[in-house]
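Need C-alpha cells for this chain, all 161 residues.
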Amino acid sequence: MTDLSAPGEVSQEGNEPKQPQPLPRLRVRFSLLVTFAGFIIFLVGARPGFFGLDRSPVVGFIQIAVMLLGIAVISVGGYGTIRSLWGRKTLGMAADIGWRLVATGFVVTTFSGFADVFGVGSHPLPGVPYFGVWQARGMEIGCALIAIGFILMFPFSTKSE
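Here are the C-alpha cells for all 161 residues:
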C-alpha cells in the first residue's frame, strides 16, 4: 500500500517522516529540450537572418506563423517542465491560475500576431500582412502574461524548513 502524504509529514503506518519524492529527471530533461526547441523555432521566425533564411525586409505571414509556433512549443514545454516539478502532488490554486494565464497569454499573442489576417490590423487582407508596432506590443504583452503564468505555476513551499 502506498502512502501519498505530503513530503515531511508523518505517515500513518509509523512515526518516521516521509521522504520527498525525487524529481522525474527524464521528464524534466525532455520538457526542457522541447522548450529549447521551441525557442529555436521562435528564433527562426523572429530573426531568420541568424540562420541564413532572410528573404524579405519585412516580417510577413510565414515568419509570424513560425514565431507563434515557437511560442506554442515553448508554452507546452514549459508547462511540462513545471508540472514535473510538482511530482505527484495536486496543483495549487495559484498554479491553476498560472496555467490559465499561460493559455490566455498565448491567445493574446496569437490574436496580436495574426491581427492583419483576422482583419483588425493596420494592413488587413487582401494586402500583404505586415508586422507592425502595435502587433509587436500585443505579442510582448501576451509573452509577459505567459511569463507571469509560469511564475505562478512554480511549486513554492509554504513550510519553513
